[in-house]
Amino acid sequence: MPRGRPGDKLRRFAAIWARAIYPLTATSMSRAEFEDYLLPLTRVLGDTLKARPFDPRPASEVGTALVAAHCTDPEALPSILGVIDAYLVLYCPPGPGLDNDECRVRCSRLQHAVAVGFSRALRERTLREQESIIRAALEAQNDAEGALAASEARFRAVFEGAAVGIGIADLDGQVLEVNEAMTRMFGSESLAMRRNVTEWVKSADTNCARGLNGELVRGERDRYDVERAYQRVDGSMLWANVRASLLRDAAGRPQYQLALIEDVTERRGLLRRLRHQATHDALTGLPNRALFFERLDAALADDTPTRRIGVCYLDLDGFKAVNDSLGHAVGDQLLVAVAERLQTCVTSPDQLVARIGGDEFVALHTDPKAPADVTALAERILDALSAPFPLVGRELTVHGSIGIVHGPVESRIAADVLRSADITMYRAKEQGGNRYEVADPVADARAITRHGLTNQLPSALEHDEFFIEYQPLVGLDDGTVHGAEALVRWCHPTHGILGPDQFIPLAESTGHIVGLGRWVLERAARQAYVWQTEHLGSGPPPRVNVNLSPIQLQHPELVHEVARVLEDTGLSPASLCLEVTESALIGADEDTLKPLRQIADLGVSIALDDFGTGYSNLSSLRWLPVSVLKLDRSFTHGMRGHAADPVDLKIVGGIVSLAHALGLTVTVEGVETRTQADHLRALGCDTGQGWYYARPGPPDRLHTLRLADAG
Amino acid sequence: MTDRPSWAPQGIDLTVPSVSRIYDYFLGGSHNFEVDREAARLVIRAMPGVTKISQANRAVMHRAVRFAMDRGIDQFLDIGSGIPTFGNVHEVVHRTNPGAHVVYVDNDPVAVAHSRAVLNEAGNTDKAAIAAADLRDPRTVLDNPEVKRLLDFDRPVALLLVAVLHLLSDADKPREVVAALRDVLAPGSVLVVTHATLQFGPTPSAQRGVQEVYQRTTTPLIMRTKEEVELFFDGFELVEPGVVPLPHWRPEVPLSDDDDPAVLHGLAGVGLKA
C-alpha cells in the first residue's frame, strides 16, 4: 500500500489516470493541466468510495466531467474505468470497517456510475452538437436563400424594369414569360405570349432564321441576332432587333431560350426620313440630283448587253422671266405645279422624275423597250406643260426644252449621259424651245456646253482669251467713217472663236459680265485714243461705241468706271458712245436712269440700241438721256431691193423726223446693200452700219477704210 | 455554365463533405453529418493517426498563440478557422488577455453560421467575430467589415494560417496570397503556418488515398515539403526552430515515445515580420 498523506495519494492516482487517458483525449489542455483537471475528480471518487451510507451516484459527475474535457473517444472509457478498477482502492482506501469484498463491490458500482455519467454526457453532448450544427446549416441555408431571394429580386427588377423586351421560352418555342417592355412593344401581353419563338425570329430570310434557331435549340450556338418586323396588336409595324440566347442548365444542357428585343421602329423611321430628305427635293418633293444619279449609276452598272437607258433633260423655257417679274415665291409655286404635272408623266416603276437644278428636271427611264418609249415620255412631259398654270390669279405659260439621250448602257458613265442630254436640250432651246431633240453624237462633239463655258469665263479673262473686233459706223451722206462699234470675241482654246451670242448671256447670268464689260470698255477706249491721236483730217476724230449690259447698268461702280477709263486713257468723252438696249430701259425709273444721266453729263453719248424690237415707247425718248437711236436691222429688211416696202419707208421716215426733232441722231444697223444705203440716206438717216460697208474686223482695218474713203 | 455575378449568393449543398466538418470529426466532435463522417473515415483508413495530427495541430497553434501573446500581440486573425469546437483562439487568448481582439475567417457558410452562434452565445462580439471570406481572394478578407472593425493593421497582428494553406492548390497562387496579407501587416506581426506533409511521418504514400477523399470536398489537399512551406515565410524571419514537424515546435513537455508518429505528417513554423 502506498504511503503518504491522503492528498499526495490522490495526486498520485490522478497522475496515473492522466497518463492512461491523455493520449486518448482530444483536449487542448496540456498534460499537466489535464492532471490538475483530474485531481478534483479523483477526490470525488475517493469520497464516494468511503461514504456511509454508500451512494455511487456522485461518481456519475466524474464521467460527465471527463466528457466535458473531451475524453469523447470510446476507446477512452476502458482506460478511465481500468485505472479506477486497478488503483482507486489502493490510493483512496475507504478506511476501517469495510472489508476487501465490500470495497471491490463499491468500486465496481462506482465504475458503473462513472460509465453512466460518461454515456449520458456523451449522448447529451452529441445531441447538442448535432443540433447546433444543424441549426448552423439551416441558418447558413436561410442566409443563402435570403441572399438568393434578394438576388432574385434584383434580377426580377432588372427583368421588369428593362427598356428592352425580354421573353423566355422553352426549347419548343413555347413562351413562358415576357416582361412589361415586351408587352408594351407588342401592345398586348397575350399577343406577345401567344407567339412562338420560331415566329419571333422568323424574318424575311425565314429559312436562315429557322436554321439559326435550330442550331440554338440544339445547343450548337449560344446566340444569334436578327432584325425583323412584327405586327403590333393595333396592326402597326414593330421593327425590332432580336437577340436570341440559349440558357443551359447546370450540366450545360440546353434548357430555355431567351429573347431580348429592342424596339428600333423609331430609329428606322428616322433613318428613312433622313434618307428621304437626303434624296428628295425639299420644294417639290421630287427625287433630287443625288437620287437621280444613284438610280442612273445603278442602271448603268447593269451591263447586260441588251440593257438600255433613256434620259430626258428638261429645262423650262421662260422660267427666269416669271421669277424676275413675279418674284421667287411665285416661281416656287410654279415649280411645285410643274413637278406635280411631271409626276403624272411617270407611267411605270422604271421611270423616275427628279429635280436636279433651279428649273431643270430630268426623267430617267431605266431599260426602255424601245427608243419610242423615251420619246413618248418626253412628249407626255411637253404635253403636261402645254396647259397654262393658274397661279396668283394669272394663267402662267411655261414650256420646256428637252434633250433626250437613249441607247444601250454599254460603258457609259452617268456624268457623260447627263452632259449629252444637257447639250441636246440646248439644241432644243436653240430651235425655239417647247420641243425635244434627241442626242446625236456628232452634234454633241461640236456642241459647247454652256456649263463648261460658264466655268471657263473667269480664267478666260485672266488668260486674255478675249479680243475686240470693230465694225465701222459710216456717215450716210458722205461715206466717211465716223467711228466703230466694239464687238467682243472669245478665242476659245478648244472651240475656236465664239461670238457674243454664245457667251454674253452666260456672263450676264453669272455676273461675270461686269468684269468682262469693264475689260471691253478699257480696251475700246484705249483703241479710240489711238485713233484720236492718229486722226489728221478735219472733223471730229472717230468715236467708239461700246455695249452696256443691263447688269452693268445696275452696277453701282459704273459711273466711276467710265470716268476712270476716260481719265486713264485720255480719251475725249465725245469720242465714246455707250449703247444700251431699249429693253433694258423699259420701265426704268429715275434711279436706274441716274447713272446714265451722270455719264451723259460727262460728255459721253448714249445710244438706244435695237430700237424698234421692243415696246418702242416714242414718248420716252423725250426724257431718256440718249443722243443716238440705233434702228434694228428688221426695219431695213424691206429696203434691200429697189422696190422698197412703202410701210417700212414711212415708219423709218417718221422715226427719223421724230428723232431729229428731239435732237437725236439715227444710226441704222444691218445695211447690206447699196440700195438700202440709198433709201436710208434719202430718209435722212445719219449713220449706217453693216456688211455693205464692212464686216467687224481688227482695229487697223478702220484706218485703211478711212484712208480709202478719204481717197 | 454561366458565371454568376459576384453579388449573387452561393448556395449551400449539404450533400458535399466539408473540410471543416471533417476536421471537427477528427477532433471527436459531432458537428458533422454522415457525408462528412464517411469522408473522414476514408481519410483515417488512408492515414491512421490523422486524428492525432489534428490534436497536435491544435496544440501547436496554442503554443504559437502564447508565443505571440508573450510578444505583446493582442490582435489575432485566424483564417480557415472552421467549426469552433473547443480550445479556440479566443478562449486561449481571453484567458490571459480579456481585451484582445480575435477575428475568425472562413469560406464555409455553415462554419460561419456556427461560429456566429458560438460567439453570440459567449456574448463578447466586441472582442471576437467571424468573417465570411475566401483566403484565395485576400481582398475579401481585408475588406471584410468585421476584419476592419476589430483589427488595427497599424499595430502588430498575429496571422494564423493553421491547416489551411494545404487547401490551396498552386493554381490558387498561395505564395502570392500570403504575400498580399503580409504587405498589410505592421512590423512585429507574427505569421503562424501549419501544413500537411508527406516528407516525415509513417505513411509517405498516403497522398493518393487522402487526395481522393478531398477531391470530393470543395477543396483539394496539397501536401508540401518543409522547403516549400518555408517559402511562405518570404518577408518574415522564421523563429527557432524553423519549420518542423508539429510536436517539435517548442514543445512544453519533453517528447515521449507515446506520441503517435502520425503527427509528424504536420509541419509548423512561426515567422516575425521585421
TrEMBL record, chain A:
InterPro entries for this protein: Biofilm_reg_signaling, EAL_dom, EAL_sf, GGDEF_dom, Nucleotide_cyclase, PAC, PAS, PAS-assoc_C
Domain of life: Bacteria
Start and end residues of each PAS domain: 151-187
The PAC domain, residue ranges: 224-276
Protein name from the UniProt record: PAS domain S-box-containing protein/diguanylate cyclase (GGDEF) domain-containing protein
Domain EAL: 450-710
Pfam families per UniProt: EAL, GGDEF, PAS
PROSITE patterns found in the cross-reference section: EAL, GGDEF, PAC, PAS
NCBIfam families xref list: GGDEF (TIGR00254), sensory_box (TIGR00229)
All copies of domain GGDEF, residue ranges: 307-441
GO biological process: regulation of DNA-templated transcription
Xref: Gene3D superfamilies: 3.30.70.270, EAL domain, PAS domain
Automatic annotation (TrEMBL), chain B:
GO MF annotations in UniProt: methyltransferase activity
Biological processes, Gene Ontology terms: methylation
Coiled coil feature spans: none
Pfam families tied to this protein: Methyltransf_19 (PF04672)
Superkingdom, taxonomy of origin: Bacteria
Entry keyword Transferase: yes
Entry keywords, A to Z: Methyltransferase, Transferase
Protein known as: S-adenosyl methyltransferase
